[in-house]
Amino acid sequence: xxxxxxxxxxxxxxxxxxxxxxxxxxxxxxxxxxxxxxxxxxxxxxxxxxxxxxxxxxxxxxxxxxxxxxxxxxxxxxxxxxxxxxxxxxxxxxxxxxxxxxxxxxxxxxxxxxxxxxxxxxxxxxxxxxxxxxxxxxxxxxxxxxxxxxxxxxxxxxxxxxxxxxxxxxxxxxxxxxxxxxxxxxxxxxxxxxxxxxxxxxxxxxxxxxxxxxxxxxxxxxxxxxxxxxxxxxxxxxxxxxxxxxxxxxxxxxxxxxxxxxxxxxxxxxxxxxxxxxxxxxxxxxxxxxxxxxxxxxxxxxxxxxxxxxxxxxxxxxxxxxxxxxxxxxxxxxxxxxxxxxxxxxxxxxxxxxxxxxxxxxxxxxxxxxxxxxxxxxxxxxx
Length: 383
Fold this sequence. Notes:
By secondary structure, this protein is mainly β. The protein folds into three domains: 18-197, Immunoglobulin-like (Sandwich); 204-293, Immunoglobulins (Immunoglobulin-like); 301-381, Immunoglobulin-like (Sandwich), CATH 2.60.40. 5% of the residues lie in helices and 54% in strands. It has two helices and 29 strands. The strands form eight sheets. Strands 1, 2, 5, 6 and 10 form a five-stranded antiparallel sheet that branches. A five-stranded antiparallel sheet has the order 7-8-4-12-13, with no helix packed on it. Strand 20 (272-280) and strand 21 form a beta hairpin. The longest helix has 16 residues, at 2-17.
């Protein structure tokens, strides 16, 4: 009996003496502040990586449990399974015979505090080789083997709260196995006392945003509390809240930690909805909410056309009490639009030259498409 027990005990000691040689870490791979669930509670999403390292050389694994603790007030599991094998576990032929056997991404209630950070959920996912010999290599370099997407719930950094893995001495399932489960490696957790923050800094924080009626249009003003990698602002306008048009741009401060003030004047001034879009250098953007302007902008216009009759060209002189943009159309006697042009009227008199050299002889009418600019002026072309 002793001859049998001694080798068995020796084997048991060998198998478990390396239990402290496999370490687990968690890390954030990416964060997005794009709302993933519409009217739901999520504010963004984050991809979490599980990384393993074996300090004793290389071990060929045939099973693993991966666990972490998190804060349910800041992080929630997605509605579908977003667990993805990567690295050696996701690369055939190494991981081609592996199956996910445990999926508890939502976690179980706990109450644990590590290094001053309290966690109330513990999750675990598990994988096992379905057939064949151990074939997923874990070596001396930390490598990502599993990625899981979670939804963040916070509105400010860290939007996903904090996470950390626990050692196998606390959670027995948090381990790697080999030799058909005969050899197990409960994980060390070197990051247990270093909570990993999830989320990202928002490139820009709008502190103020307002629209107001002015005598010469709609005034938009906004302020930012901080800017990072900010390129420009776009002023968007909509009549129905669904279809938005970019009506103007303002350059941004690029990088700033102090309050910056911006303004834009919509000379058209018609009723509608407005919002500001901040665009980063990489094309990503953040938008304000929409505000409605119910401004009744009136314009007092007088106009004159000369010379009459005309042959080569005319000058349309418009006197206005405010600066305003408008499109002009020239209509012939048959009601056809023969020419279009855009112009910006200044306070005072604006002289607009118009080429009529290619128009046939006859009577024409100049009108404005902007209802604020009441303009209807006749002129004659002679040949």
